[in-house]
Every structure is written in C-alpha cells, then in structure tokens.
C-alpha cells in the first residue's frame, strides 16, 4: 500500500514538472510556486481521485445508454458554451472576467458532480461516464474555445496563448492522472478500495482550499464586479440545471437519468477553471489570475444553487 502511494505521488509530481514548460504564460513573468506547482499538482491529484473510482466498465455506458449519454454530452459540449457566451454578453462582462466565464463554461463535470448525483439518488455510473469522457474531450475543446474567446473579449489586449501547449498541459494534468487512478484500480482493486475514501476526502479539501484562495487573491476585483459576476454565474448554473433536466424529460429519460443529466449539465469542475486561468495568465502580484475568479465564485455558489434541486429530487424519489 505504501509503495503504491509513493509511486502515485511521485508520478503526479513528475507530471506537474513536465507540464510546467507547456504552460501558456508570458516568459517575462516571474515564477510563482502556487501557480506553477501547487495548483497544477492539486488538480492532478483531484483527477487521480476520479480515476481511482473508475473502471473500464464505466465507459461501456456510452454504448449501452447512447441516448442518455448523447443528451448529456450535447448539453455539456455544445449548449453550455453557447449559454456561457450568451450570459456573459448579456451581463456586460468584459476582458479577463468574460474570458474566465467562458473557461468555466468549457469545463467538464468532476468528482463533485459524481458525489452530488449519488446523494440525489441519480445514476452514478452514468455520471462517472460523463465526467470521464468529457474530461478527455475537454483537452481539445477548452483550449480552442478559450483562444477564440480571448480574441473576442480582449482583442489586442489578449496575451498570446499556445493552444497546443495548453492542450498538452491539460492532458498531462487531467487525463493522465485519471489513467493512473484507473491503473491502480485495475491492478490492485483492494488497495484502490482502501485508499478511495481518503483520496476523495483529500480531493474535497483541496477543492475548498483552491476556491477560497482564488476568491481571496482577487477579493478587490470580485467586490468591484460582484454585481455582474455573481448573477451571471448564478444564471448560468440555474439555466443549465433546468436545460439538463428538461432535455432529458423531453427525450423520455426516466427521472433517475434525468437527474443525472441535469447535474452533469449544470455542475462544472471549478478546479479546472481556476487552474486553466492561472496557467494562461498569472496575476502580476503573484496571486491567482482574474481569469480564475468566475470559477472560484462558481465553486462557492453552485452548492447554494443546487441545494433546492437536490431537496426536490430526493423528496420525489422518497415519495
């Protein structure tokens, strides 16, 4: 057990170090240990925690439940970015905050969405399949959409972004840790079971720390823009939860899967949004980027927003 833990930690650290040169930051910026090491390593660990709970069987739902899977993926990959752009434009967000909203709208679900699905008595296996597949696809889609968003919202003020480099970095920090977690599960199921609870707890604690750090480091910017950023984040969350559930019902999915589609459509992995924002453009004072702020705010507000939905679904199942 100790040997496996040591190997996993060493692998995640190596991934972070390898990914660092690919980060799309201005070379003139001073290095920052939080942006360059702690944040990417935390994301890698969180994604590893997802992989520990995955098996290859989870991916077969793509074939066994094509309609349910297709609806959820379409919501996440197509509808969510479109709604993110529409809400960002309507709210009048500009510059880095607008790009940060688009980063958030491109993020897949995460361990949080899987846990919320389980608590709400949804289809957890389907939720995990969504998260796994979309997390891999995001390696390609997120850098492309973010690049276009930076040109649109920031114009000439937009920093140069290495889309290929960002995609490689995301692959190293998201997909590879998931594969490492799956490898632990495959070759040593008993050890994966014994470490899963502790790993998930550590991942949850890291998530809270990352969100609070993002908000604290850009507190002044948050206060200056809370009147537009807060409502924009709330509206995005509410609309996607609604679209997710209604689209599932429209295509005659049972309540169990409709609940899952709703949560996967409306709950994004804020840690990825915060990390990507920091990788693209670090703050001059060494804190986290303004690009990360929408994801940080979202990471707090999403629990308040989804609580009534969860209460409604749990009561519906019990009655």
Describe the structure.
The chain has 13 helices and no strands. The chain starts with a helix and ends with a helix. 80% of the residues lie in helices and 0% in strands. The radius of gyration is 19 Å and the shape is globular. With 319 residues, the chain is mainly α. It has a single domain (33-314), classed as Na+/H+ antiporter like fold. It has helices spanning 2-19, 33-52, 61-64, 66-91, 95-105, 111-119, 124-154, 163-187, 189-217, 219-250, 255-266, 270-280, 293-318. Residues 21-31 have low confidence and may be disordered.
* CATH third-tier fold name: Na+/H+ antiporter like fold
Number of helices: 13
| Element string (H = helix, E = strand) | HHHHHHHHHHHHH
* Helicity, as a percent range: over 70%
Q: Total number of β-strand segments?
A: 0
Any guess at the CATH architecture? Up-down Bundle
Number of discrete domains: 1
The span between the termini is 44 Å
Structural class: mainly alpha
Blueprint of the fold:
Elements: H1 2-19, H2 33-52, H3 61-64, H4 66-91, H5 95-105, H6 111-119, H7 124-154, H8 163-187, H9 189-217, H10 219-250, H11 255-266, H12 270-280, H13 293-318
Helix pairs in contact: 1-2, 1-8, 2-8, 2-9, 2-12, 4-5, 4-7, 4-10, 4-11, 5-7, 5-13, 6-7, 6-11, 7-8, 7-11, 8-9, 9-13, 10-11, 10-13, 12-13
Supply database-style keywords.
319 residues, mainly alpha, Na+/H+ antiporter like fold
Report a brief summary of the structure.
With 319 residues, this protein is an all-alpha fold.
């Amino acid at each position: 057990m100790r040997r496996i833990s040591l190997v996993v930690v060493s692998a995640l650290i190596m991934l972070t170090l390898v990914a660092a040169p690919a980060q799309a930051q201005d070379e003139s910026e001073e290095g920052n240990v939080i942006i360059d090491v702690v944040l990417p390593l935390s994301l890698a660990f969180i994604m590893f925690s997802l992989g520990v709970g995955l098996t290859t069987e989870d991916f077969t739902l793509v074939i066994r439940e094509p309609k349910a899977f297709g609806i959820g993926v379409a919501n996440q990959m197509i509808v969510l970015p479109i709604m993110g752009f529409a809400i960002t434009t309507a709210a009048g967000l500009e510059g880095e905050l607008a790009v940060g909203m688009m980063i958030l709208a491109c993020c897949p679900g995460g361990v949080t969405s899987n846990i919320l699905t389980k608590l709400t008595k949804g289809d957890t296996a389907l939720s995990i399949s969504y998260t796994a597949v979309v997390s891999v696809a995001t390696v390609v889609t997120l850098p492309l959409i973010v690049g276009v968003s930076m040109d649109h919202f920031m114009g000439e003020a937009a920093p140069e972004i290495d889309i290929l480099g960002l995609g490689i970095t995301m692959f190293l920090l998201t997909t590879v840790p998931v594969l490492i977690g799956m490898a632990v599960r495959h070759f040593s199921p008993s050890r994966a079971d014994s470490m899963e609870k502790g790993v998930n707890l550590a991942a949850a604690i890291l998530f809270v720390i990352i969100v609070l750090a993002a908000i604290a480091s850009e507190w002044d910017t948050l206060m200056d823009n809370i009147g537009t950023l807060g409502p924009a984040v709330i509206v995005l969350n509410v609309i996607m939860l609604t679209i997710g559930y209604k689209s599932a019902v429209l295509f005659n999915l049972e309540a169990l899967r409709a609940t899952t589609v709703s949560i996967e459509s409306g709950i994004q992995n804020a840690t990825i949004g915060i990390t990507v924002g920091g990788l693209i453009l670090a703050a001059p004072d060494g804190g986290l980027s303004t690009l990360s702020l929408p994801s940080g705010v979202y990471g707090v507000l999403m629990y308040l927003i989804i609580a009534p939905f969860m209460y409604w679904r749990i009561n519906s199942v019990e009655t």
